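In the previous lecture we treated proteins in isolation. Real proteins rarely work alone, and many bind small molecules. This record shows how such a complex is specified: first the sequence, then the SMILES for zinc ion.
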Amino acid sequence: MKIFATEYLLIDLESEKWHCRRCNHDLGSARENYKFGLLVHERDPREIHAPILDEAYEFTFAPDPDWVRIIEYYCPECGTMMEVEYLPPGHPLTRDIHLDIDALKLQWATREELKAPILGPDTVWERKHHHH
Ligand SMILES: [Zn+2]
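The predicted 3D structure, ligand included, written as tokens:
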């Protein structure tokens, strides 16, 4: 069974793997950081945030690349951008999703696989108790 984790990520509970929601590419163990399975591009922040002021000024509106980099993450199969974060140069990749896979397996053992994510107040629990 595959469950929706984010707009771009699925988890296959049998194989315990992350998958791309767009192309189903295997992105590695769901017990590890999904970012390890993605392509990483370190971008100079001046490419995204224009300086606006000219070079006569020591400081502009562009972030200083000595202090911050824009880290972009892409699916290695279909190229979908999955995440972007701002980090100091040399900072390790952050881990923003750390799920208890064993608890998820228990939780979904009695549920049916969803065809599409459920958003808002219509949770899986609500559906189970009000519509069946
Ligand atoms: Zn993909």
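Summary for your notes: The helical segments are 101-108, 124-130. Residues 39 and 79 are 8 Å apart (CA to CA).
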